[in-house]
Design goal:
Elements lengths: L1 H6 L2 E15 L2 E9 L4 E2 L2 E2 L8 H13 L3 E4 L5 E9 L2 E14 L12 E8 H7 L3 H15 L2
Parallel strand pairs: 1-7
Antiparallel strand pairs: 1-2, 1-4, 2-3, 2-8, 5-7, 6-7
Length: about 150
Amino acid sequence: DANNVRELPIKIVKCFGIIPVRFQDGFFELFIIQQRAGHWGFPKGHPEPQDKSEYESACREMKEECNLEVKRVLFEDTFTDKYQYVKKGVLKDKTVVFWVAETRDPGAVKLQAAEVLDGRWVKSDEVCLSFTREHSKVLLKKVLERIEAI
């Protein structure tokens, strides 16, 4: 309950990711992955000491999780997903910063079995059906509006 959550220790978590896009024949698709926990989302992860920037962390995570590389970033600004969850008695206050990017070789997908259960390219109208978390749907709506305006 809400009172118990307020008494938990809080850990601030910041992750970075890419929302992979491919354009073909007048429409676009996004690449989504199914995390080991079961929910669908976009490639993302924690920064590593060797990463020179937040953007580099995002690119590395996409490469590791699904073997995709950025061809070009579509927008200068980023999209942020913020949410909280409890794990092992700790309240995680998580912020994920995403860049939206067209990928270099969309056919090169190879999933990282240790972290990713499934992954696929989906059309914009189908991607909404895959997302179950409300905060993810809000992020997705903003991203789709921007891509459709290109």
